Amino acid sequence: MNQLQRGDDLQFNKVEICGVNTAKLKVLKESEKMELLKKARAGDKKAREELVIGNLRLVLSVIQRFANRGENPDDLFQVGCIGLIKAIDNFDIGLDVRFSTYACPMIIGEVRRHLRDNNPVRVSRSLRDTAYHAMQVRERLMNELERDPTPEEIAKELGIDREEVDMPKEDVVLALESIVEPVSLYEPVYSDGGDTIYVMDQIGDRESEESWLDEILLRQAIEELNPREKKILFLRFMQGKTQMEVAGEIGISQAQVSRLEKGAIKKIKDKNKA
């Protein structure tokens, strides 16, 4: 009974991507990775294949960051594997760096490149070239100035590099924004195991916030009016009745309705100003 239940649990937790059962993926120790990397450098194809298989969990963990992009997980997994293979082929075993530390940015970069190239919003090559040059200039200026350079400084430096007299800062800003990946409003930005904070939770709507606050203040001001003033405002502005009709319903003169209406509106305005 226990064995049968355990088998059902394994099948329930099974996740397949590109025909690979991720629940059974092997995880290599760092020492094993270094040994296989040395063999792969010497031309051992089997060791290279073992390295790829032994680091598929790393690929899986990276592509989970892009789960809300609407992309096919199989496609992302394959692209991530390309980044992993590039990392294996280019990793310097002489460096005192863990392989995963080197491989993660390579895998992320490959996935981002895939998302950018397959973006339904096409960006012209000239604009992309400007953006990449601007990014290089930005990094160089950050090292020189020890702060984030302004768009004007980037534009000026970019113009000098390209031997142009002037390059409008607007062109730099447009180019840099053109290569920014679109982010889903439902992409999680923080989770402590309980409630998850999404991108949309961090986006403020100033107009709706102000109208919401105005409504609260209005309700509070109306609550402080006396019953007769409340009824006059309700009949006048909610039911659309004239002052003559209100006067007939309440049993007072039109002049009194006008005076009470103005007084109530003044109280509300004064309350909101305070």
How would you summarize this macromolecular structure in one to three sentences?
The chain is 65% helix and 4% strand. The protein contains 13 helices and four strands.
- Averaged pLDDT, please? 76
Q: What does the radius of gyration come to?
A: 32 Å
- What structural class should be given to the helix and strand makeup? mainly alpha
Q: Fraction of residues in helices?
A: 55-70%
Could you say how many structural domains there are in total? 3
| Number of helical stretches of at least 4 residues | 13
State the low-pLDDT regions, or none.
1-14
Instruction: Using the coordinates above, name the CATH class of the largest domain.
Output: Mainly Alpha
Give the percentage of residues in beta strands. under 5%
Q: What general outline do the C-alpha atoms trace?
A: elongated
User: What is the rounded distance between the termini?
Assistant: 73 Å
Polypeptide structure, described:
The protein is mainly α and 274 residues long. The protein folds into three domains: 2-117, Up-down Bundle (Four Helix Bundle (Hemerythrin (Met), subunit A)), CATH 1.20.120.1810; 125-178, Arc Repressor Mutant, subunit A; 206-273, Arc Repressor Mutant, subunit A, CATH 1.10.10. The chain contains 13 helices and four strands. The strands form two sheets. It has a two-stranded antiparallel ribbon. A two-stranded antiparallel sheet has the order 3-4. A hairpin with a 2-residue loop joins strand 1 (16-17) and strand 2 (20-21). The chain is elongated, with a radius of gyration of 32 Å. The protein starts with a helix and ends with a helix.
